[in-house]
């Protein structure tokens, strides 16, 4: 406990703590009988503030641009990150085989380079490995957190939030009016990251209560290529596999 976190009197003033010994008692603090002690929790450096959602454009590249925001404070990193992912997949065809990718390696590489192709868990795992950082991806609908890069000894963690069809960035800021330039988006793994995780989970819980998510099992989509109406993620995937169309818009 630090002196700033232990207060007494009216108005409450910080107590100067004596050296701790085996025989130390409350009376050593100079308190009177019946006096109230106020114990104030002090957050460690790097975890102060509140978690905020930083909006990323809905242009089918949201995962990449959200990651660009939390790493570079840039919403325009999709092209370079797509190229990086394609290079990593192409360079390791044994790991990224057809059974893993659900399509041939070279076909997947061409597909992920397209501006209208959505990224997902495969891309996040590659980005975590390349940038040597944990990526915590929070799902508003399920309130689940997927931690890509977990257990690899990485020293930093960043956070994204997913609403069922779209990724945004999560940042720690002093308050809701704080400028984005002051955002903290990378956190030391360990105690700091876990404290921020508690705040992020609380934020996700509130987003869930406000139904800030899309039910991918029942939402309606329209293919931007042929205008066919579709219901749910399964129909969208089946349509994409049958036609090669990958652009969809919610309606």
Automatic annotation (TrEMBL):
<protein>
    <recommendedName>
        <fullName>Ubiquitin thioesterase OTU</fullName>
        <ecNumber>3.4.19.12</ecNumber>
    </recommendedName>
</protein>
<dbReference type="GO" id="GO:0030968">
    <property type="term" value="P:endoplasmic reticulum unfolded protein response"/>
</dbReference>
<dbReference type="Pfam" id="PF02338">
    <property type="entry name" value="OTU"/>
</dbReference>
<keyword id="KW-0833">Ubl conjugation pathway</keyword>
<dbReference type="InterPro" id="IPR057766">
    <property type="entry name" value="Znf-C2H2_OTU1-like_C"/>
</dbReference>
<dbReference type="GO" id="GO:0005634">
    <property type="term" value="C:nucleus"/>
</dbReference>
<dbReference type="GO" id="GO:0005829">
    <property type="term" value="C:cytosol"/>
</dbReference>
<dbReference type="InterPro" id="IPR003323">
    <property type="entry name" value="OTU_dom"/>
</dbReference>
<keyword id="KW-0645">Protease</keyword>
<comment type="function">
    <text>Hydrolase that can remove conjugated ubiquitin from proteins and may therefore play an important regulatory role at the level of protein turnover by preventing degradation.</text>
</comment>
<dbReference type="GO" id="GO:0036503">
    <property type="term" value="P:ERAD pathway"/>
</dbReference>
<keyword id="KW-0378">Hydrolase</keyword>
<keyword id="KW-0963">Cytoplasm</keyword>
<dbReference type="Pfam" id="PF24560">
    <property type="entry name" value="zf-C2H2_OTU1_C"/>
</dbReference>
<feature type="domain" description="OTU">
    <location>
        <begin position="51"/>
        <end position="173"/>
    </location>
</feature>
<keyword id="KW-0788">Thiol protease</keyword>
<dbReference type="GO" id="GO:0016579">
    <property type="term" value="P:protein deubiquitination"/>
</dbReference>
<dbReference type="GO" id="GO:0004843">
    <property type="term" value="F:cysteine-type deubiquitinase activity"/>
</dbReference>
<dbReference type="InterPro" id="IPR038765">
    <property type="entry name" value="Papain-like_cys_pep_sf"/>
</dbReference>
